[in-house]
Amino acid sequence: MLPIDQLVHELAKLPGIGERTATRLAFFILRQPPEYSASLSKAIAEVKDRVRLCSVCMNLTETDPCPICRDHARDASVICVVEDPSDMLAVERTHSYRGSYHVLHGALSPLDGIGPDDIKIIELLRRLEHGDAREVILATNPNVEGESTALYLTRLIKPIGIKLTRLASGIPVGGDLEYIDASTLSRAFEERREL
Question: What pTM was estimated for this model as a whole?
Answer without folding.
Answer: 0.82
